[in-house]
Amino acid sequence: MKNNTTQLTALKVLVSTGNFDTVVYTDPKELLKAVEKNEYDLILMSSGISQIDSIELIGIIKQFANNKNKGIPIIALTVHTSKRDLAAYRSAGFKDVIKKPYTDDELLNTIYKRLHLKKFL
Description:
By secondary structure, the protein is mostly helical. Helices cover 48% and strands 11% of the residues. The protein is built from 5 helices and 3 strands, in the order ααβαβαβα. α2 packs parallel to α3 (54-64). The protein is globular. The model has no long low-confidence stretch (mean pLDDT 89).
C-alpha cells in the first residue's frame, strides 16, 4: 500500500504540471520489459518496492536497458536517508535521492534539474 501511495502522489504532481508523459509500473518485471523496448527520460523509484530491493533493481535495469536507456537518470524516493543509505543509493547508481515526505516543489525541482529543464510556473 505504501508504494501505491508514493506512486499516486508523484503521478498527481507530474500530471498537474501538464509537462510530463508518465507511465506507472507496479511490477518490476514490467518495468524491465519497458526499459528494454521503450525510451524514457527518467525513472522515479520508491525504495518501498515490495517484490525486490530498489538497489538490486537498479542494477538489473542497467542490464536490461536498451542503449538509449543505459544512462537514464533514476531518482529514489525514500524515507531511508542516513549517510549509509545515501552512500548505498549513490553507489548503486541513483542520480538523486528525495526524502519522503517531500513537497511538490522538491520533487519537481529535482526532476527539472536532472533533465536540464527550466521550471515554468
